Automatic annotation (TrEMBL):
It comes from the Bacteria. Keywords: Carbohydrate metabolism, Hydrolase, Manganese. It holds the Pfam family FBPase_2. One of its GO terms (biological process) is gluconeogenesis. This is Firmicute fructose-1,6-bisphosphatase. The keyword Transmembrane helix does not apply. GO terms for molecular function: fructose 1,6-bisphosphate 1-phosphatase activity.
């Protein structure tokens, strides 16, 4: 063993830092042994999901069944001992334990024999799923109220001596005698689902289209281990929550377009009453178009136009739509031809300065901005996106990102001008 003076100074600094966590040789040896053992375990299962778009029911079902991982294990263990109907019943119980137990209770199908058999099935499944993790990690995944009991039962062995067998059998007996079988089933089904997937990757677009992105966010905030790569729709909501008017009006347009105002009004408590009143007072419905849709689209064109003119490096001048309008003739000229406008109702557009908001529009957008900034639940969800998300991430050798990366024809990274600088590849996402 080397003496202190034989180590380089830089090496000693590392040793001093390590000594804070591992003050003795025994502690160091223990950690080395532990880490060497862990790296030889199989990797935990990773679950990848993307483009959730507010579809909570579909998301929740996929989250519950772990994209088929649990079914695969059930088939592996019980294909020779349970019928297909019995295996499907077991899977339904794991995915939706409360609903399944309530239904069985109504039909009078729950008794001690069923409970004992089901507990044994769930324990066998949990034991298989736990085999790729350390005992410490499995114990931490267990519900605290049943941790001791589950830990004992998971490590029961088929060839254990009579005393241990009696001990473990008595645990099951006591669960049934105390009437806690239902709670124990809940605990085991939750453990099975947690062990089935070690880490969850959400690769963008939680928001828009569907009605319940807020419920998805609540579920993600309860998840034990995950990361998020922001999608364009997520970034839009992040900008809206920060008070950017162009992002806010885009969020409103998307939700009105998909007839989905529930997330704004019920999910986040953002009132759209002022928008509805402004639209009805300002626009006509005689052309068959929804006044609210017209109000949003006009404000959208104005705010997007302001952004484009502030950033000529975006190269998006073709999106300055009002410059292509012939308001008097009622037409719009695009590269593909000249087309008749579906409405001539543009009471807030100043022909000399078409991208300037009217006084009424400014007041409206400031009020809606306050609604977004003041929504505590929205702000909490967006903070979670920031703390658990990024534009891209590398995980277990995989590059995770949503959407695409600008490339040249030959496959090399394309250079993009942004905020006065030029970026490409990884530099564009830092």
């Amino acid at each position: 063993m080397k003496r202190e003076g034989e180590y380089p100074a830089e090496y000693l600094r590392y040793l001093e830092l390590l000594s804070k966590d591992y003050p003795t040789q025994a502690a160091t040896y223990t950690e080395i042994i532990n880490l060497q053992a862990i790296v030889n375990l199989p990797k935990g299962t990773e679950h990848f999901m993307s483009d959730l778009h507010g579809e909570y029911e579909a998301f929740y079902h996929i989250l519950n069944n772990c994209s088929g991982v649990i079914r695969e294990k059930v088939e592996m263990i019980f294909s020779n001992s349970l019928s297909k109907e019995q295996r499907d019943d077991l899977l339904t119980l794991i995915y939706y334990p409360k609903e399944k137990l309530n239904l069985m209770e109504q039909k009078g199908l729950i008794n001690d024999k069923w409970a004992r058999t089901t507990l044994h099935h769930l324990l066998r499944l949990a034991k298989l799923l736990s085999s790729k993790y350390t005992r410490s990690k499995v114990r931490k995944a267990m519900p605290e109220s049943f941790r001791f009991v589950i830990d004992e039962l998971l490590h029961a062995q088929p060839d254990e001596d009579k005393n241990r067998h009696v001990y473990h059998s008595k645990i099951i007996d006591t669960i049934l005698e105390t009437g806690s079988a239902r709670e124990f089933v809940y605990a085991l089904t939750n453990l099975v689902k947690r062990l089935a997937v070690d880490h969850l990757h959400i690769i963008g677009d939680i928001y828009d289209r569907g009605a319940h992105a807020d419920k998805i966010m609540d579920e993600l905030m309860r998840h034990h281990s995950l990361d998020i790569q922001w999608g364009n729709h997520d970034v839009l909501w992040m900008g809206a929550a920060a008070g950017d008017l162009a992002c806010i009006i885009n969020v409103l347009r998307n939700n009105v377009r998909y007839h989905n105002l529930e997330i704004l009004e019920n999910g986040y408590g953002i009132s759209l009453r002022s928008l509805a009143l402004f639209a009805l007072e300002t626009y006509t419905a005689e052309d068959g178009l929804d006044p609210m849709v017209k109000a949003i689209n006009v404000i959208l064109c104005k705010l997007e136009g302001q952004t484009i003119m502030r950033h000529p490096e975006y190269g998006m001048e073709d999106r300055l739509l009002f410059k292509k309008f012939d308001f008097d003739g009622g037409t719009v000229t695009l590269p593909s031809g000249t087309y008749e406008l579906t409405t001539s109702d543009f009471p807030t557009v100043d022909r000399r300065n078409p991208y300037e908001l009217s006084e009424g529009e400014r007041e409206l957008m400031e009020e809606i901005r306050r609604e977004f900034l003041g929504s505590e639940r929205l702000q909490r969800h967006i903070r979670f996106l920031y703390s658990h998300g990024s534009v891209y991430r590398t995980y277990n050798g995989n590059l995770l990102f949503h959407g695409g990366i600008p490339l040249n024809e030959d496959g090399t990274f394309a250079e993009v001008e942004l905020e006065g600088g030029k970026y490409r590849g990884r530099g564009l996402y830092r």
